[in-house]
Write a structure and sequence with these properties.
By secondary structure, the protein is mainly alpha-helical. It is built from 9 helices and no strands. It is rod-shaped.
Length: 238
């Protein structure tokens, strides 16, 4: 998983670099304006905000790919388990779960493995292992949340520094004309805008990932309840 995250990070950086080059070739004026605003917004903070965007997107892409792989057709999985249990092949039902990717199959496998302990043992195993799978599904979300929080904070920090620079300029010149404070205010506004844009982009991805996790968890819970019913109907419990 760490190797996948690293590869996605390198891939994301490569895509960003390629996009920047294409933008520079296709619309040099637009690229120059973006570059100008990036530099004028105090590049020290802009680089940090851009880093938050790149790292945040890397984690988002990794989670989305992992969750898409983890999404399984639970109805079809339960049908195959039911077919094996009707034939009295508990081991075959377990092999079906082992050969299926995703947390739902792993949870059902733990339930089948504890069939000899009765329905209480099956339910206990499902609940215990379900908590483990839930933690794996939410892995990396804390980092995305961190970048969502840090990006606007860095923008606001640039805003504060820009205002300080504006007041320093007023103190040096001794004049309160707009031309004196324009540069400092521009830095303040640009860093805030870029920080908020990054936070908005990552928040959209974060909400999508959370909704995806909720859907997987709901399917996992439904499949777990259905598994107990299937096992009971096929007289697996002795």
């Amino acid at each position: 998983m760490r190797k996948l995250s690293a590869l996605l990070l390198v891939f994301g950086i490569s895509i960003y670099s390629g996009a920047v080059e294409l933008a520079a070739q296709a619309e040099p004026s637009g690229f120059q304006i973006l570059k100008k605003y990036f530099i004028e917004g105090d590049w020290r903070f802009m680089v940090l905000v851009l880093t938050c965007l790149i790292l945040g997107l890397a984690f988002c892409i990794e989670r989305i790919i992992t969750l898409n792989i983890a999404t399984a057709n639970t109805d079809k999985l339960l049908e195959r388990i039911d077919e094996n249990l009707k034939a009295g092949d508990l081991q075959g039902a377990m092999e079906v779960c082992k050969s299926t990717q995703g947390p739902t199959a792993s949870v059902l496998y733990e339930g089948l493995k504890n069939a000899n302990g009765g329905p209480e043992a099956v339910e206990k195993a499902i609940v215990s292992y379900g908590g483990v799978q839930m933690g794996l599904l939410e892995k990396g979300l804390v980092w995305i949340s961190l970048f969502i929080a840090i990006a606007p904070m860095l923008g606001f920090m640039g805003t504060v520094i820009g205002m300080i620079q504006a007041f320093d300029r007023i103190a040096q010149v001794g004049d309160l004309s707009p031309a004196v404070v324009a540069d400092g205010i521009k830095v303040a506004l640009l860093t805030t805008v870029f920080g908020l844009i990054v936070a908005i982009i990552l928040q959209i991805f974060y909400n999508y990932i959370v909704s995806k996790i909720d859907g997987i968890v709901n399917k996992m819970e439904d499949a777990s309840i259905a598994l107990v019913d299937v096992m009971a109907s096929n007289n697996v419990f002795k």
